[in-house]
Amino acid sequence: MKEATKSKYAFVANIIEDIDIRLEGFYPRLGRMIPMFVWRGIYIASALLGNGYKCVAEYDTFGRATGCTVLVTMTAKQMVSRPWAWLGRLSTLRACRYAQDVLGVDIIGLGSLTKSITDEGYYLKENGISIPITHGDAYSVASGLNGIDMLCDRFELRPKTIALVGAYGKIGSAMTKILARKYNVIAMGRKKELLEKLSDETDQPIHITTDLKEALEGSQLAIMTTSAPYSIINEKVLENGRTYYLYDLGQPYNLFPDRYWDLVRKGYRIIRVDGGFEGTGKPFDIGFWMRLNKGVVYACYVELVTQALEGDPNDYLGPVDIGHVAETGRRAEKWGFRHQPLSCFNQPLDEVLKKAKPHWKGGRS
User: Fold this and answer.
1) What is the set of domains in the chain, with CATH numbers?
2) Which of 50, 224, 234, 262 is 20 to 30 A distant from 180 in Cα terms?
C-alpha cells in the first residue's frame, strides 16, 4: 500500500528585536562583534537586494507533516516604520513565494507582524500565493480564553470587568464578543470609529474608550492584544499602590522585560502572564528558537500545525470566525496541544513574582 504523502507547512515570521542576532539560532559571536546599528543596516540592505528572508529550520511533526520556519530578516520596528513598512511587506511576500515555489509547502501560517503588514494575508493572495494561508488568530483566541481562566484560578480572581486593549483587532474583537457574554468589558483602542463599530457588532453592551489609563483603572484584569513593536504600558497609565493583572497576547509583547522590571523596581505591582504559549506532551522539536523555551510554541503556530495535520485546504484570513475558534480548540486537544503553565517572559510565573515582590510597595489589590 502506498504511504500517504506528508503535508508540508511553513511558518513565516520576522525578527522581533535587533539584539536577537546575538542569541542562539542566529549568530551569537558575530552578533556581538558587529555593532547593532550596522546589523540594522544589513537587514535593510538585504531586503532591498531581495534577500531579506531565510529558511532557518525544517523538521518533522509527529511523523505526519513537515514544518519549515521562514524568517523575514527585518526587526519588528523596521517592519512597521514609515520608511520601511513597504519593504517589510514586500519581503514577506518574497518569503511566502519562496515557501510556496521553492520549498513546496502546502500551507502558510503568518506571524504577528507578517500578517498585519500584509492586510491579514489578503495582499499575499492578490500577489501570487495560491496555497492556503492562515493567520492563526482563531486558536490564539481559544488559547487566550484558557489562559485567562488559569490566571483567574491561580489568583482567585473573580473579575466583574475585563479590559480588552487592542479591542478591534482580530484577536481583540473576537475575545470582546465572547467575554462580553460573561463579564463587563471595557474595549480600548486608538480609533473611536472602529470601537463604535465593534460595539454595534457585539450582542452585549460594552464600554469603549481610547484612553489606556481609563481601561486599566476601570478593570480588574486587562487582556493585551495589540501588535505594537514597543511597550505600551508605562508610568503614565499606571497608579502606584494597586495590583495590575495583565494577560499579554501581544507579539511583540505589549510590555517588554526591560520596561517591566523598570516599573517593578519603582514599586508598581504588576502580575504579567504570557498569553498564547502552548505545548504538547508529544515529542515536538521545531528546530529553531522563537524566543521560547524548547517545547513551547505560539498559539497561532499551533493553528497552522493542526490545520496541516487535518488536511484543511481553506484560507483563514480577515476577522476571526467565532465558530472556528471552537474548531481550533478541538483540533489542538486532538493533537495534544494545551496552554502552558503560567509564565512571564517565558519563565515560571512564581519565579518572576518571587523576584518582583521585594520591590512592591504596600497597597490594595
Assistant:
1) 7-137+283-338 (no CATH), 141-277+343-359 (3.40.50.720)
2) 234
